[in-house]
Amino acid sequence: MSEKKSHLQGSGTSPIDEKLSVTPDTTLIYGQQFYFNVILTVNTGNFPAGYSISITAKVDSGITIAPPISRVITSGHENSINSGLYSIIIDDYDDNTIKNGKVSFSITLGNGSSNIYNKNFSYNVKKILPYTLQLLPDKPVCVIPKKYSAPTQQDPKDRYVLYKTQLLEDTGSSGKKTPITNVLVHITSKHGDDFSKNIIITSHPKLGLQPTIYSPTIENGKTFIRLMSDSHDGTIKFRVYPNNKPKDGNSKANYKPILLSLGCVIFGQERYTHMVDNVCFITPRPLFDTDLLESLLMPDADDSVIKGGPEDPTFKVTIQPYDNPSPDDHISFFTKEKDKVPDINSLILPIYNMNDANEVKYSFPIPFSSFKPDEWEGFFMLLLKKEILVTQWERCLKFQVVEQALYRQME
Fold this sequence. Notes:
The protein has 411 residues and is mainly beta.
């Protein structure tokens, strides 16, 4: 929770400090919704009995505030009081109700006849270019280490996936890029489930600083992490590590594959959410592959040699059907590995979804450009079901360039 302090002298009370869950330097977005609370603390002594917090929108200011179902009333024995969760809704841009790009409200602590705390607050409100909410991961695949170690600033880049974007204001001028700083956003998963069991999200610190681990929050059954865009350039940047931390000192590392799809969300504007394509956190293939599928079929291969030319940019590979393919099943192909660990730099894009639009796919086009001509190279398949590495399969291939496409579909 962010903190903002002031010192106000009430009637017969010592100075009161306030802590707002969303500080006044936050930039809000038209149409944004969020939960908000404030904690008031008296410096010395206790609050008098019979007082409660009220948060009230200024008339015609473009902000709607709904109070919690019940309010906390001071008993005379506490020096701190929590307002409870208020629901905040910012009007849409087209409503034309927000003047000078600001919304205002007041916070009071009173008993119905008098207030011992009364202060006004405001937020700046801006219009966002929705496409800038799209997070960009720096890699589609990350290999899970066999041993857990706490995140550090010096971690090599292959230990985590770096997500980033820059939030830009919609100023009406297509040629101008204006960053929006201090924007409140929420990072959530595709299904809103508790991703904290499988991943650790941290800051991406500058040199000399250690990463901050972000703790998830659960509201209305959905798990998310609150972040703010950078106060200088409006960027959102964070690391995602696989959570292979043992549950306790006697447990082994939490060592299982993960399929992860994250999105940067502004609540109330979910229609602009862009979920990132699945990023795969994978384990090395087991020494003994007990879950292998049937052999990978290559109709275009002649004794592991594939011929192709300018008219044929791809060749086809096919896997045998298997039981209960899920929309979360993904298949990827590599040309290199080391110690049974796929070399992510040899990944053949894209990573394919096995079950797309209710249609199960078992055949996939592989670009010839992924191989060096007239050289034997490896070809590795990885089929990933949710939290299960089903198989990896390897084969040596040789690609020959010809002036015309000479190969044909083999019966």
